[in-house]
Design a protein that fits this description.
single chain; 612 residues; alpha+beta; Glutamine Phosphoribosylpyrophosphate, subunit 1, domain 1; Rossmann fold; six-stranded antiparallel β-sheet; 26 helices; 39% helix; 15% strand
């Protein structure tokens, strides 16, 4: 819905600093700018008008304007909350869904955020108490970053690039964050790429008052909701009700709504329900050269998507892309990724968002999150069969990216791994030994292994905990970040119904048997919607949106490898990569046993990011 930014404390030229930050966020809100400035707080927003187009300007206030609200997102249960508040005598100035937050805070204080079902990043200034609250939604759909300055001063913004524009900050690269980057293709929160800037964790509140800053989680009320999944029939029924309610609630909009549509189960569920509820639904899919990806299979899914679109009666758009068109968009991909980001499927979201905006669509629904909530990744069917054995691990990295090994050979190696290493091996990228060869010794000196992000699995390594870890770590850091940044690049709001806290609360209670039965993935989700979907969609195996990055880096994009690692590149100038890293990169790409394309693509994108 918008981008927000602000400063707390006594600063010279506060309006100038605020305007610089807001100018960096125009893509998040091209329709309008709003500001609020008093003696201690300066905050502002760039608005993307979706709800209450005429009356929803920000800041928003409580009845006497002592509570000042700036926020990014949508509050999907705002209608219910508004009726409750009006029954107690509250009077609203706008039809904006966000105004409920100001009135709730007046009554409930910090507990107000527990009542919200939505995606949001909030800055709330309590002018009577001289207190600033920053809050972020439970799933982590909307970003919010902050930096602490001297004497309790604070600056914040929806994106790091807005904080980069502040002369108040002297920024230094975070070596650990950059070390982790090629393993995941993103930097795990709460780290950013800078030592001085951090992300407010999802589901947390920051309170700044009288020079003190306190950060902590707010209560997740969704985990205490009673759910009946005692039998298969009841689990299927609960899944149908909760997922359908999440999709319907996320249609809240005064502007046309569209949906991503791959033709697979997840996006088909979302688009089918949306098409039933809306007078018109635009659907979008990507079509490109049908290369045989050695890891995922055939790359193009446009025919399957067109078949589903015809079945639900949507107005369908096919976005045709090529290796050349994706390459031309890499600078845009880098700029709007904000932090170093190399999830190549984001290029597809970028292309669809551009097409959606051109078609007049400001809101796009996605099917992301169903795999993490309901057990959709191909390796999940093997989780129960992995029993730890004592074995000698090979001297070279082995993961599911080792396409030169048979499935059984890969599984045998994984059985000898610790839970942390196995979590990496299922679906992540650069191994620690590969990074040691690519990074300069000085850069990697004294840093932690990226496997530390899986440490909790050492104590609890059940199949359900592996999937839960993906839900907590992979989903917000990769999938939700990708949807938000790439859609907002073209001023489009991405919405992810499977990220709804109610869906997540259901998923956390499901057993592996609800999710995986034999070789059938997402069992309960398939059963919940099989009566409204075409049979081929229900029976279709998992097939993510795949960019054939290994193929392109050895073909049309090969020169970018040289550019990133050669002498004089930004990576070399900053002392990040080893002097012989180009030879190492070429050797990794030439390995026919293992897919290393995304590892090398991470360094290419990091080089672009540093060269901005």
């Amino acid at each position: 819905m918008c981008g927000i930014a602000g400063l707390l404390g006594e600063f010279q030229d506060r309006r100038t600093h605020l305007c610089r930050m807001l100018n960096a966020l125009v893509h998040r809100g091209p329709d309008e700018q709003g500001e609020y400035i008093d003696e201690l707080f300066a905050g502002g927003m760039r608005r993307l008008s979706i709800n209450d187009l005429r009356g929803g300007s920000q800041p928003l206030f409580n009845h006497d304007k002592s509570i000042v609200l700036l926020y990014n997102g949508e509050i999907y249960n705002s209608g219910e909350l508004r009726r409750e508040l009006e029954a107690t005598g509250k009077r609203f100035r706008t039809r904006s869904d966000g105004e409920v937050i100001a009135h709730l805070y007046e009554d409930l204080g910090e507990s107000a955020f527990e009542r919200l079902d939505g995606m949001f990043a909030v800055a709330l200034w309590d002018s009577r108490r001289k207190r600033l609250l920053l809050a972020r939604d439970l799933p982590g759909e909307k970003p919010l970053y902050f930096a602490r300055l001297n004497h309790g001063q604070l600056v914040f913004a929806s994106e790091v690039k807005a904080l980069e524009h502040l002369s108040l900050l002297s920024l230094t690269l975070d070596r650990q964050a950059i070390w982790d980057f090629p393993s995941f293709l993103w930097i795990p929160e709460p780290s950013s790429v800078y030592n001085e800037i951090e992300a407010l964790p999802r589901g947390h509140i920051l309170v700044a008052c009288d020079g003190d800053i306190r950060i902590g989680p707010y209560r997740d009320r969704f985990v205490s909701v009673q759910l009946d999944i005692a039998t298969d029939e009841r689990a299927v029924g609960s899944t149908r009700r909760i997922v359908e309610d999440a999709i319907k609630s996320r249609l809240l909009s005064d502007v046309p709504v569209g949906s991503f549509l791959s033709g697979g189960l997840d996006s088909s569920v979302v688009a089918t329900i949306a098409a039933r509820e809306l007078p018109r639904l635009d659907t979008f899919t990507v079509s490109f050269e049908d290369i045989d990806d050695p890891y995922h299979g055939r790359a193009d899914e446009s025919k399957a998507a067109a078949h589903t679109a015809a079945a639900i009666g949507s107005r369908h758009h096919v976005v045709h892309v090529t290796a050349e068109s994706f390459r031309k968009s890499l600078d845009t991909f880098c700029q709007y990724g904000d932090l170093p980001f190399s999830v190549s499927s984001g290029l597809g979201i970028l292309a669809v968002s551009a097409a959606a905006r051109e078609a007049g669509i400001k809101v796009l629904l996605t099917g992301d999150g169903a795999d993490e909530c309901f057990g959709g990744y191909s390796w999940y069917e093997h989780l129960a069969g992995i029993k730890r054995i004592n074995g000698v691990l090979p001297c070279t990295p082995v993961s599911f990216q080792n396409v030169g090994l048979s499935l059984q050979e890969r599984l045998t190696v994984l059985r000898g791994m610790s839970p942390s290493r196995r979590a990496w091996a299922w679906h992540y990228y650069a191994d620690e030994t590969e990074k040691l060869a690519l990074f300069s010794p000085e850069w990697g000196d004294g840093l932690r292994s990226s496997l530390c992000h899986f440490q909790a699995l050492e104590q609890h390594d059940t199949p359900e905990e592996f999937i839960r870890h993906d839900r907590d770590f992979y989903f917000p850091n990769e999938m939700l970040r990708k949807v938000d940044r790439m859609a907002m690049a073209y001023s489009v709001e991405g919405r992810t119904p499977f990220a709804a806290p109610s869906v997540r609360a259901l998923a956390d209670r499901l057993s592996l048997n609800h999710m995986v039965r034999g070789t059938e993935l997402k069992w309960v989700l398939r059963r919940a919607f099989e009566d409204i979907l075409p049979r081929d969609v229900v029976n279709r195996p998992k097939h993510g949106f795949n960019v054939p990055i290994d193929h392109w880096l050895q073909g049309e994009w090969a020169d970018m490898v040289d550019e990133a690692f050669q002498s004089g590149s930004a990576l070399q100038r900053n002392g990040i990569v080893a002097s012989n890293s180009l030879l190492v990169a070429r050797r990794l790409l030439a390995d026919r046993e293992r897919l290393n394309g995304h590892t090398i693509f991470s360094f290419i994108m990091l080089n672009k990011w540093l060269s901005r």
